[in-house]
Amino acid sequence: NTKREDHAVIVEKRLHQKFQKWNNNNGWKRIGHTLDAIPESDVVDQITNDNLDSRDENLFVTKDEVAQAFSHFSYTNSGKKLLICDLQGVYDSVDTMFRFTDPVIHCHRTRDSKKKGAYGRTDRGQQGMHSFFRTHECNLLCDLVTRGFRNAQKSWNKVGSIALGKNA
């Protein structure tokens, strides 16, 4: 009598670029270096606001800052119920996008909730969120994405555009 077991398999697309880790689910973060001004020809991604005056001010951000701002944004945008972290993967400079693999989602649960680890064994809930914010340092990009571009007038008054350099 042979017992048959069902198995699940998860398959991800192969990531060919240099693999990096930007943060983890215990509060660790990769610390990048401030970039020097990037020549206009090297700017790969730019966000602009049409309501700005003609000042030519730019905010140059590193990939590390973008990843940290994304984690912070996930928390704010979910109504402080979720936080996406353990960001690892590659930055695809051709498509100008991050390709994350195996992220962690921390889920805020109420005291009455019996569902622990709603997003798997790495979901550390509020403790994971506290670990992230214990080491997180907001930057101007964080202010923009967590307050919403329309509500970040104070930030926009300081910045004309945001650019991510190829060598960031």
Automatic annotation (TrEMBL):
SUPFAM superfamilies, A to Z: Protein kinase-like (PK-like)
Protein's name according to its UniProt entry: Alpha-type protein kinase domain-containing protein
Organism expressing this protein natively: Eucampia antarctica
Keyword Transferase: yes
InterPro entries: a-kinase_dom, Alpha-type_PK, Kinase-like_dom_sf
Secretion signal span: none
GO MF term (any one): protein serine/threonine kinase activity
Lineage: Eukaryota, Sar, Stramenopiles, Ochrophyta, Bacillariophyta
Keyword line: ATP-binding, Kinase, Nucleotide-binding, Serine/threonine-protein kinase, Transferase
Protein origin, superkingdom: Eukaryota
Stored SMART domains: Alpha_kinase
Pfam families: Alpha_kinase
Domain Alpha-type protein kinase: 1-152
